[in-house]
Every structure is written in structure tokens, then in C-alpha cells.
Amino acid sequence: MNIQVLSSEVIDQIAAGEVVERPAHLVKELIENAIDAGALEVEFDFSEGGRRVRVTDNGKGMGADDLCRAFDRHATSKIVESGDLWKLQTYGFRGEALASIAAVSQITAVSRMAHESLATRLQIAFGQKRESESVAGIVGTTVLVTGLFENIPARRKFLKSDAAETNQIRLVIKALALSHPEVGFRWLEAGQMQAFWPAVETHVNRAEQVLDLQGLFEGEFVGDGVQVRAAMASPETVAKTAKNIWIFAQRRWIQDRALTAACMEAYRNLLMHGEYPSCCLWIETAPDQIDVNVHPTKSQVKFQEPSQIFRAVFHALRDQLEKGPWLKTRQPMGASPFQGAPPSSPFLGEQKKFYAAELEQVQYQQKSFQAAPITYSVESEFQTPDVPSEAISVQLGPWSRLQVLGQAAQTYIICQSGEALVLIDQHAAHERVAFEKLLEAWNGGVRLEVQTFLFPLSLDLSESQIEALETQKDLLLKLGIEWERLGPLTLGITSAPLILKDRALVEALDRLAHELVDLGQSFVFEKYLGDLFATMACHSVVRAGQALSIPQMQELLTQMDKYPLSSYCPHGRPVSVEMTFQKLEKDFGRKV
User: Fold this and answer.
1) Closest to 251 measured CA to CA, from 99, 42, 31
2) Alpha helix positions (H), 282-345
3) Do 373 and 259 belong together in one domain?
4) CB neighbours of 511 closer than 8 A, spacing ≥ 6?
5) Which of 567, 527, 564, 533 has the alpha carbon at shortest distance from 374?
6) Average pLDDT value for the chain
7) Where is 483: in which H helix or E strand?
8) Is 109 strand, coil or helix?
9) For residue 172, what pLDDT is reported?
10) Which helix H or strand E contains 208, and what residues bound it?
11) Distance between CA 415 and CA 33 in Å, rounded?
12) Fewest CB within 10 angstroms: 87, 209, 423, 523, which?
């Protein structure tokens, strides 16, 4: 077969297959064009699974000549020369989208600029333009697309069901709204209003609008030429997939496994296995530090320094999460019956009597209890401090101001606040306290108690994995973990923290070696450290079935107040559950 030059019709259909793989891409391109035109209000209506789409904006509009040229291939106002590709400030730049859409659909476009008295209307049928005409119209642009892929039956056959295509369009609409809080969006389906999101001031406000989540928290990281803004839910708002993790780079919705992993890493020790957080991230970097010209649909980008972006995302989330911001808006247990009582209140006298009685018991109960100590600790786990008789409520935090009533099944601490009964899992609560103390000890340079093995523990690895472990040898030595070569591909672990069981140690080192090779991130060791300390904490704290006195339970709550993340154990399990008195009254029929 001889080599031939393809006709413009075939070229346009090939381009359409790359740029407009499915109706959601069509919707994305039209709305992005509206935003690039400076629109502050966008209305879109679609039906038939996206084969019919109308987008109206109040942007600057186009004159007759520009409207006709806009549907030519490689016609764009966004770039002029190749260097412009590295300083993009707009969504579009290839000049392919409108031409590709016009090649596989019927289009009616109406546009008017502010200084013109009439609008221009242009109609295109599967790539064939008609003469433009002047019509009445408002400032801005309206594009109506119908009959998508009717001239390419093979392409239309591979579309998914209308329901599936509609769901994908909804995701694209949400993503575009999330990336532009300053733009108002009206969303219709077959003429029926689905949502109206007016312009708002902050990204957090828009995330609450679009995702229908209230009480989101704001995080931010700025440094090394990168800015990351985050809107995040508390660890209580979880999903079974990563669908509620939204990532934007230069206001483009992107799919990036490494940055999704950074989000998961930020929520480490706050989520259970199989749980995913709800958060949105907006990443801004210098235009020459990011390549958006990777894929025709622009859903993927490349960063010049991906590890730098990973760290920025991690800190934007983690630094805020470690403050436990949800505790400020949701006192996990409500208000104490004694909280905020004025000095003349009879409650204050009752409070003094309660603590006086409890403290009196400490003198003879303190010695009867000794929780399994954290090996690095030089102090008893539950030393109940002297509590001043005055201004007790001022010193108490959200956990310690609960009134301890007793213990259920020698596992759950029963408490009450002014609003609810609260059950606290004593093992999970103490596990978090011990975990945080281990991290404090590590960061403070305290060496853990170490055991030396008479017979080294054997660990078989590949050469690359052994080399990866060698790069972390100094940090592992600080933990008390040492090894020697028993063979070409076998390590013999000669010492380790006393509290860590042999099997857990071997499994943890094996996992660390694999992740160092596969991921090559500096955060791998931090993750390993967190997992190791979580395991150590689990083996060193009070267990289910262990009896505690009321002073001991109260002291545990006091220690929980020292750490903002005390609502969750290091494995992500919730520490407490509560039942409001309002619900109890309803269940007992006292209130209807």
C-alpha cells in the first residue's frame, strides 16, 4: 500500500477520538473554555448521557471572525510560540478541542462581546460550517452540542450506558466547580435544576458546597516554590475507596497515585485498614515546574520535583491533622456537668467532693495497679497528680472533664458529660497515649531498651533490598536494631527493642525493605517508624479485661488530653462512642 496523506475529515476524527473519548471530556472542554474566557457564571445542561450538551457563560464573548476561527484546528488565543507551553495560565492551549468536537457532532454557537449590539451565531454539522449570522443575544457565549458521535457509529457503540456516562459527567462538573470557587455554577439535567453553587470566597467553602460535607478544616503548606491548600474532613468521615480524594494542580483535576499515597500517609494512624479520607488539595507551582502537556485530556501532569510535591501535600494535611481541629468544633463528649460552673454554683461543691473522695483513694489504690510500662519510660504510667481544689474546671481538658462512672466488662470506661453517656475503650485510649510517648521519646533522643539475641533472627532479602536497608542503618541503630550478614542474601538481626516480638520485627523489616525499593521515598522510614511504634504500643498497654480503679481511669483521660489525636488508636480505631441523653429519653419514651 502506498503512503498517502490523510484527509482533513479523517484527521479531525482521529483527533476527536483522542480529545473527546467520552461525553464527560466534551463537557470538560466546553466549561474550561468558558472559564478561560473570564466567565464568573456558568450554566450547563446535558441529557442523553452527554450526547446533548449546552454550556452558557457570561465571559467576554467573541466577535464573528474569532467565533469562526475558534472551530479550526490548531487555532487558539492561548499560546503563540513553543516557549508559551512552559508558562501556561489557561486550561486550553492546543487549539484542538472545539475542532475535534465539531468533527463528530452538530454545534450551534452564539457569542457576543460587550461592545457589540448583536451576537454572532455559527452552526456546524459534523465539521461542515455554515455561514455565520447576526442574532440577538446576551454578552458571553452559548455552545449547544447535539448528536455526538452520530457520524461515527463505531465510536458511539463503545460508549457506556447513559447512566454510566452521566455519572462521569457529574464527577467532571464537581471537579471544575471545586477548582474555581470564584465562579458560580448552575447545573441542569434535561432542563431540571440539579445544583446551584454560587461563587464563594474560599476553597473550603466550595468543597463544603460541592461535596455536601460540613465542618471541613483548612490546611496549607508554602515553601520551595510550592503552595498547597487543603480542605479536609475529620478522620471520622471516611469512604471505602479513594473517591473523596480530589487533587488539583494548576487548577486542573488530575489523577496521581503518588499524591493519593501522600494523602493516605498524612492520615496514617488515624484510619483503619480499607478506609480512605475525604479531602481536597489545590497545588500551585511555578509554570516551568510542571508539564501539563502529557495527555490530550490533560488529566495527568508531570512535576519536575515530584518528591517535593509529595512532601508539600503531606505537610499541608498532617500539620493540621496533628492539631486535632475537629475537637474544637466537636467536643467528643459534650460539656461536663461541672464545666463552666461559677464559683457560687452548688455544682462546684459537688465537684470538689467528688475529686476529694477520688484523691483519697489514690493513697492506697495507686500501689495496687501497675500498667505494663513502655520500655523507654522512667515514670509510672498512671501517676495521679494532685488536683487543686480551686478552678478545677479550668485545668480539665475535653477528656478529663468527663465524669468517670465506672468500668464495663473490665474493658470500657463509662463516663458522662452534660449531654451524653460516653464509653471509652481503655486499650485503644492507652495505646494512643503510649504511641505518642514513644514518638516523643524518639524525637527527644531517648534510646529504647534493647535486647541482644543469642541466636540472630534470619531475614532473606534481595541485594537491592539489603542495600536499601543499609541506607537507613543509622536510623535503625537509633532504634536498637542491628544486623550482620549471614550469607549473600541473608541478614541476621542481632539486637532489637525489648518490647517488640521477634515475628513482628522480622515482618516490619521485610516490609520496610520492600517499600524502600518500590517507593524510594523519605517518608517510607517515617511510615515504618509509625507502624513499629503502633505495634510496640499495642503490646505495652492495659488490655481488655483488666480492672482499673476510678482514679486510674481518670488519670488515663488526663493523659489523653495531652495529645490532639486521642480520638483514635494508632491503628485508626475510634477510642470512644457516645449515646446522648436525648436519645435515651426518646428510647425510654420520656420524650416523643
Assistant:
1) 31
2) 306-321, 326-329
3) no
4) 528, 531
5) 533
6) 81
7) strand 482-487
8) strand
9) 95
10) helix 203-211
11) 57
12) 87
Q: Which residues sit opposite 39 in a β-bridge?
A: none
CATH number at residue 514: 3.30.1370.100
Write out the H or E segment, with its range, that includes residue 246: strand 245-249
344: cell is 457560687
Looking at the fold, whether 254 and 396 belong to one and the same domain comes out as: no
C-alpha cell belonging to residue 282: 489545590
**Domain match, 270 and 398 both:** no
pLDDT: which is higher, 97 or 282: 282
In the chain, the amino acid numbered 178 is L
Of 358, 326, 347, the closest CA to residue 549 belongs to 358
Residue 320 maps to which CATH number? 3.30.230.10
8 Å CB contact between 75 and 62: no
pLDDT in tens, 325-339: 876 654 444 444 334
Dig out the grid coordinates for 528 from the structure. Answer: 515504618
CB within 8 Å of 198: residues ≥ 6 apart: 184
88 or 43: which carries more pLDDT confidence? 43
Q: What is the DSSP letter of 203?
A: H
H helix intervals, 344-496: 346-365, 392-395, 426-443, 463-470, 473-479
Asked if 208 and 193 sit in the same domain, the reply is no
Mean pLDDT to the nearest integer, 72-96: 53
Whether 416 and 576 have beta carbons less than 8 Å apart is answered as: no
- Which of the four pLDDT bands, split at 50, 70 and 90, describes residue 523? low
If you ran DSSP here, which 8-state letter would residue 236 be given? T
- Which pLDDT band holds residue 183 (cuts at 50, 70, 90)? very high
Please give the Cα distance from 577 to 420 (Å, whole number).
Answer: 10
What's the grid cell of residue 323? 492539631
Give residue 148's pLDDT: 93
Q: Tell me the C-alpha distance between 534 and 436, whole Å.
A: 9
Overall residue count recorded for the chain in this entry: 592
CA angle 475, 479, 481 (to 5 degrees): 90
pLDDT (tens digit, 9 = 90+) per residue, 18-46? Answer: 457 889 999 999 999 999 999 999 999 99
One domain, residues 188 and 267: no
Task: Give whichever of 237-241, 370-374, 438-442 has the largest mean pLDDT.
Answer: 237-241
Residues 60 and 143 in one domain: yes
500 or 347, which is more confident?
Answer: 500
Mean pLDDT calculated for residue range 474-479: 83
Least confident of 201-210, 390-399, 409-418: 390-399
| Domain match, 420 and 529 both | no
Rounded average pLDDT over 371-388: 40
Does residue 376 or residue 446 have the better pLDDT? 446
How far is the CA of 26 from the CAs of 15, 149, 359, 588, in angstroms?
A: 13, 11, 70, 57
Domain endpoint, select from 276, 302, 329: 329
Query: In sequence order, what E strands does 84-216 have?
Result: 106-112, 119-125, 128-129, 133-135, 140-146, 184-189, 192-197
135 with 173, same domain?
yes
